[in-house]
Each structure stands twice: as C-alpha cells, then as structure tokens.
Amino acid sequence: xxxxxxxxxxxxxxxxxxxxxxxxxxxxxxxxxxxxxxxxxxxxxxxxxxxxxxxxxxxxxxxxxxxxxxxxxxxxxxxxxxxxxxxxxxxxxxxxxxxxxxxxxxxxxxxxxxxxxxxxxxxxxxxxxxxxxxxxxxxxxxxxxxxxxxxxxxxxxxxxxxxxxxxxxxxxxxxxxxxxxxxxxxxxxxxxxxxxxxxxxxxxxxxxxxxxxxxxxxxxxxxxxxxxxxxxxxxxxxxxxxxxxxxxxxxxxxxxxxxxxxxxxxxxxxxxxxxxxxxxxxxxxxxxxxxxxxxxxxxxxxxxxxxxxxxxxxxxxxxxxxxxxxxxxxxxxxxxxxxxxxxxxxxxxxxxxxxxxxxxxxxxxxxxxxxxxxxxxxxxxxxxxxxxxxxxxxxxxxxxxxxxxxxxxxxxxxxxxxxxxxxxxxxxxxxxxxxxxxxxxxxxxxxxxxxxxxxxxxxxxxxxxxxxxxxxx
Length: 473
Fold this sequence. Notes:
Blueprint: H1 16-41, E1 47-51, H2 65-94, E2 101-105, E3 114-116, H3 119-126, H4 130-141, E4 163-168, E5 174-179, E6 181-185, H5 203-208, H6 222-230, E7 234-236, E8 248-252, H7 254-265, E9 269-274, E10 284-285, H8 286-294, E11 302-303, H9 331-360, H10 367-380, H11 389-398, H12 404-411, E12 426-427, E13 432-433, E14 435-436, E15 444-445, H13 448-451, H14 458-466
Parallel strand pairs: 1-2, 6-7, 10-11
Antiparallel strand pairs: 3-9, 4-5, 4-9, 6-8, 12-13, 14-15
Helix pairs in contact: 1-9, 1-10, 1-11, 1-12, 2-12, 7-9, 8-9, 9-10, 9-11
C-alpha cells in the first residue's frame, strides 16, 4: 500500500498550520477516547494524568528556581484548563457530572524508580527490595565495553527521553532489558498500514526540518541521530542509513518493547526505569499509555508531554528476547501481531468516540480546528476494528512534533453552557473550587497553579544532570 504523500494528513490545506491543527484534532480525539475508556473502567471516577515539575538544567533558557516555578505554574494552568474543557465534553456526552480527567504531580524522581505496567505489576513492585532497583540502575548505566570511534553499541541509551524497559518474570528476576529503538519504516514494512509522509516540497517539512534532506519523523534532525547513536540508542535496520525519499522514522520506547516480550513468554510484567541525566519523569507518555491500555496493562502514571514520532514494533528482527521459550505459536512475530491488533482496535474505538464527543459539543471546539474535525470524521467512516486506519492517523499526528498538552488546549475552547466545575475556576488537582469564599476567615481561595513553588533548588537540579557520571570512557 502506497504512503499518503499529500501536504497534510487529512487534506484541509497545504500549510504547516493546517497540519498542526489536524494533528491537534487527531490527538485530542484519541485522548478523549482514552478518558472515556478509563472512566468506564473506573466506574465513573476521573482518570488522573500527571506533570513533572520543571527539571531543566540551570541555563539561559531556565536560569533559576524562580523561572522554573513560573514555567510550572503556566503548565499547571494549561493542565487545569484541559481538565475543565475535556470534562465538559465527556460529561455532556455521558449526561452526568461525574468522570472526566484530573491532574496531579508525578511521583518524586528517584534514581532507580520505576513506571510499571498493570495493577499486578504495582503489587509486584511493592514487594521488591528498594535496593534491587538501585542495583539494576547501576548495572544498566555502567559501561560494559570500551567505546570505540565514538560508538556505544553495547550500552543502554542514556540521552534525551532515556527510559529502560525491564521484563521481570513471575519469580521476580529481571530477564531482559530494552531501551528506545529508532526504526526506519517504509512501504515494504509488514503491517505498516497507510502512513502519511509529506512530500519534500510540503511546507510542513520545511517548517519542521530546516534541512530538506532530513527524513520525516526524525527527532531533531539527522545530525542529532549521530549523537543519539553515541548515547546508546539502537537503530533498525542498523546497517542502513535513513532514506528521506522512502522512510518515516519511528521510535519504540522500552516499556512497549517489553510488553511484546511478556506476550511472547506468557508471563512476567513490564517495568520502565528513567535512566541517564536528561529525563526524570516517572510517568508514561500518552502514546505509550494508549498502547498499554489496549493490552490491559495500564501505566502506573501518564503524562501529557511529548511522544514525538512514537511507533509500535513492526518487526521481530530488532527484538531482544529473554531466556524463556515461546509461549505462543509463532513466537515474537505472533506476539507483535496480537499486541498490534489490540492496539489498532483500541485506537479505532478511541478516535471514533473522541471525534463524536467533540462533534456533539462544537461550541467547545476552537473555530480554527473545526474543519480538521470534519475531515477526521470523514476519514473515520472507513475505520473498522480490524483495520489500521485510526491507528495510523494517530501515528501520523505524532510525527508533527508538539507538546500533547498544547495540542488539546489549542483544539478545545471554553464554549456555551459549561457543566458544573467546567468554567476554568475549579482546581482539578486539589479537587476544590477556587475564587471568593463565603467564609469570612478564608477569603480568596487560590488554585494550585497560583501558589506552587518548584521543589528543586538550583543545586538539586545540577546534581540531577551530572549524576550519574557521563558514561564516556
């Protein structure tokens, strides 16, 4: 099946702004569908997403604690607005004033702390000796072999977004470790579907990549990939350079790789550990979260940061198997097929529900995004549980790189007849009304976004970004 090489995903226009709005709408529809799924699973309770207090290094961009606090408060206000807007939509759809989404702070970062997949993993992790995680962390980040010619092929990736996936068997043994892998996807990739790869003259390519030779989907640019290789990221196929004429770049995170392995061996649980010195979130991105939900191993925490060019696995040739034999006939190939099939069905459900919810409450959809929603609804008419149309639209949206929180916030607006607590004044973190209190001793009640102070001193930030020591030898 040939890739879609038009200038935008849905065909609303030829500009980069058209693509941005389309990606916004696709992601927002998927997120609303995920919220609906979690509400049903939780019996009407809200689904919580988390944010991490700013941990950027002390630099010109983020010079001190005061600046980090200002950034945190802006992020919190955006998250609170997202909750108000999304909750109006999903509660209007359900005709109830329950459910929706709330927000909180990610668990405090601790080197060796883990994200886990599924409630059973949470129970298992609670029984683990805390020192186990620290030992595993030191092992995974310690140089195993000397670097040669700037390459670290036998090391775990420790750069930006560095998470290490771990498979822990039913006896509590770590039996496999996997970091993020970069894959080159083309029309010959098995089950890749009908992906969108804008032609080289499309404005969005020039906007996202100043160098027109960069391959679509690559994070940063192709020059950055050299650094990522040196930091330990694996590339597949390893002996092939990215081809900007044929390929789309995708990144499969360590947690997702491990879920395929637990499917293959029929036991164990998947964990993910934040490693390196640039990434500290103890939460799964929304894209990883969607895949985990589809495979019934919901993440212990989810965030609305960035899942740039996120992609599932398509080939078993890049897999890192544990010592266990195949539990299912067909081995890892069949495991990939089964997990991806569940994911495609899940995204079909999420996107269709989300688009319908948005269309039912149009006054809460930004006017600039209505045309994209109309095109999405048309595209979804051909979506079915057993095809990959919805899944591929979501993956296409992720190749336009942008904060997921910004996608939702800019897609939705405050419209008519807000439901209870959905006018932007309710604090969805503290679960309380803000504003003027009737109680004379209380006065004005401020929202979390108005009073929060970044918990990290400049010295703590410096330590986070310098420990562990760089892994060069």
